[in-house]
């Protein structure tokens, strides 16, 4: 509620003014509801929990969820492994191409 608004003049502002001030509609949405606000807050809380280190109070499901989340988010190591595999493949492929080219050029 917005107690500064006159309900006889602008009932919507009186009833919903504080909500509109506190919850700005994001540019990618046409509206926002209490359920969307709660869902967004829940996503932030869940992300925080999953990013915490595992501890003695976590049950098996939480430990597995944290492990899975952290393994997916470790893009640096994952990309490094993939880059190394790609580099190794390209190196072996280029050596094969180079070997074929030398054989064709030199008539060996």
Descriptive account of the structure:
- The chain is an all-alpha fold and 108 residues long.
- It has 4 helices and no strands.
- The protein has one domain.
- It is elongated, with a radius of gyration of 29 Å.
Count of separate structural domains: 1
Taken from the alpha-carbon principal axes, the silhouette is elongated
Number of strands: 0
Largest sheet: none
Indicate the percent of residues in helices.
Answer: over 70%
Rg calculated over all Cα atoms? 29 Å
Spans of at least 5 consecutive residues with low confidence? 97-108
End-to-end gap: 89 Å
Overall pLDDT score: 76
Total DSSP helices: 4
Order of helices and strands: HHHH
Q: Give the DSSP E fraction (strand runs of 2 or more residues).
A: under 5%
What structural class should be given to the helix and strand makeup? mainly alpha
Short description:
The protein is mainly alpha-helical and 108 residues long.
Task: Name its key features.
108 residues; mainly alpha; disordered C terminus
Fold topology:
Layout: H1 11-22, H2 34-51, H3 60-73, H4 75-106
